């Protein structure tokens, strides 16, 4: 038997030590959470996507009584960015959440489905997307979604690697 260990390296910041351009992205994510439609969970999430051309696209979670029909903030923002700017790579995404009128103390990290979409975005543009996860106590930052989803599924898994002779 062989054993493998997978670890992730995250940078942890307080808001006062964060750069101004990243603070702007966080503020856009926080503001986007205000437009969330979350009557069931009461968990309002906002995401702000920074494109390589400097454009910032925001999105918020949109719930539905038929729960699987809703959509997370990250995917809302990423799908809009990819639809409106199909040739412009995504550089970074910031995520923030609030509940009961206050932003969460701990960071809000992308769910598994959003992580998979972020892998596809990285593959599409052949470059990493910086992930910024905001919480009132601290901010987590990773250079690529692969830090949060190391055994990801991609197009290479769909290719036939079997030799048919």
UniProtKB/TrEMBL annotation:
Against Pfam families, the record matches this protein to: dCMP_cyt_deam_1
Which keywords does UniProt give here?
Hydrolase, Metal-binding, Zinc
* Alphabetical GO biological process terms: nucleobase-containing small molecule metabolic process; pyrimidine-containing compound metabolic process
For this record, the Gene Ontology CC terms, alphabetical, are:
cytosol
Q: Which cofactor does it need?
A: Zn(2+)
Name the PANTHER family on file: CYTIDINE DEAMINASE
Kindly provide the name given to this protein in its UniProt entry: Cytidine deaminase
